[in-house]
Amino acid sequence: MAQAQPVCLEDLQQSAAARLAPPVWDFIAGGSGTEATLDANRAALDSVSLVPRVLAGVKTSDTGAQLSGTSAALPLAVAPMAYQRLLWPEGELAAAEGARAAQVPFVVSTISSTSLEEIAKVGADLWFQLYWLHDRGRMIELIRRAEQVGCQALMVTVDVPIMGRRLRDLRNEFTLPAWIRSANLEPDGPSAAHSRRASESAVAAHTKIAFDPTFGWSDLEWIREQTRLPLVIKGILAPTDAEQAVRLGVDAVVVSNHGGRQLDGALPSITALPWVVEAVDGRCQVLMDSGVRSGTDILRALALGADGVLIGRPVLWGLSTAGAQGVTQVLSILRTELEEALLLAGCADLAAARALRTLTR
To answer: Residues 17-64: pLDDT tens digits?
Structure first.
C-alpha cells in the first residue's frame, strides 16, 4: 500500500522522528532544561481563541505579504537553523529550494552546513542570520558576503550569549560527524563541535568558543552602521528591549524564545507578542516564532498584531522526510490551512486578520 500523503504537519513530524537517528532527532526536537518553555509555547498558542466574523462575503483570501522589504506569498519566512545536512544530504540547498518554490524568504544560519554562496545559487529570496562572534573582522566578512550574494535582509540573533543547557544533547554527548562543517566559519577543517566530551554537547562547546557573550546595545548599533540591508533582530521578549531596538533603527523584531531552546522558564512568544506590538507602535515590523505549527497558529499571531511568523522545526521535519519536496509540502500545507482559516474567520487579507479579536483562555 502506498504511503499516505501528509495532511498536517504532525504527519511529517512523525515521519521525521521515525527516519532520524535518535541523537539527531533530539538535537532538533529538544529544548533547554526541563523543556518547560518548549511545552508552554504550544499550550499558549492553543489558549488563544479567535473571534471570527461572519457574513463577510469573502470568496478568496490573499496571503501575500511584505516582510522587511521582501515580497512573500505567505506571511512567513523559514527560520535560521544550523547544520541541515544532518537531516538530508543536500541540507540547506534542499530547504532553500523548498522555500523558493513556496515563494517565501529563507534565512541562512551563520552555522549552516552549506556555504552562503552555494545556497544563493538556488535562487531563493535569502536573508542572512548573524551571531555576535568574538572575531569582529569575521562578522564584517560575513556581512559583506551576504550583501554580495544578494541577501535581502540581515537578521541578528540576540538571545544566545551562550547556548542553553539542552539535556537531551548532554545525555547523548551530541557531536557533529566529521563530514558536517560550519561552512561559513570553518569550511576546511574540524572544530570543537567534532570533539566528543563526556556528558557534554560538542555543539555547545563550539558556540562557547565562537560566540561573544558580552554582546550589548552598542554592538548592535555598530552592526546597524555596517550595512544598509534591512536589519531584523531575533530574540526579543521584553517590550523595553523592543523599544530600544526601534531607537537604534531596526526594521523588524522577532518575538522569540528560540523555540524553548535558550532560557527555560521564559514566557511563550505568543504571550509576549501583544506587548511588543504595543511597544513598537508601528515603527517597525513585528514577526513571531516559537511553536507555530499550523495555519491557525499563523492567524493567531496576525490577530495579535504580528506582520508574519518564522517557521522552524516543521521545515526540518519536511526536509528529513523528503528533502526539497518535503519542505514544499510543509509550506503548502501551511498555505492551505491559512487560506482556509482566513476564509472561515471572514478575512479577505492579512489586514483583516490583524483586525480580528482574540480571547485568551
So the answer is: 999 999 999 999 999 999 999 999 999 999 999 999 999 889 999 999
Contacts of 270 (CB under 8 A, 6+ apart): 41, 44, 45, 48, 288, 290, 291, 300, 301, 304
> Quick check: is 134 catalytic?
no
pTM: 0.96
Sign of the CA dihedral with 271 first, then 159, 123, and 65 last: positive
Strands (E) located in 24-116: 48-51, 65-67, 70-72, 76-78, 106-108
**How far is the C-alpha of 261 from the C-alpha of 96, rounded, in Å?**
23
Residue from 134, 194, 206, 258 carrying the catalytic annotation: 258
Which residue in 201, 267, 237 sits closest to 39, CA to CA?
267
Q: How far apart are CA 158 and CA 234, in angstroms?
A: 6
CB 237 within 8 A of CB 257: yes
Eight-state DSSP code of residue 284? S
The rounded distance, in Å, linking the Cα atoms of 315 and 76 is 12
b/e per residue 284-310 (b: at least 16 CB within 10 A):
bbbbbbbbbbbbbbbbbbbbbbbbbbb
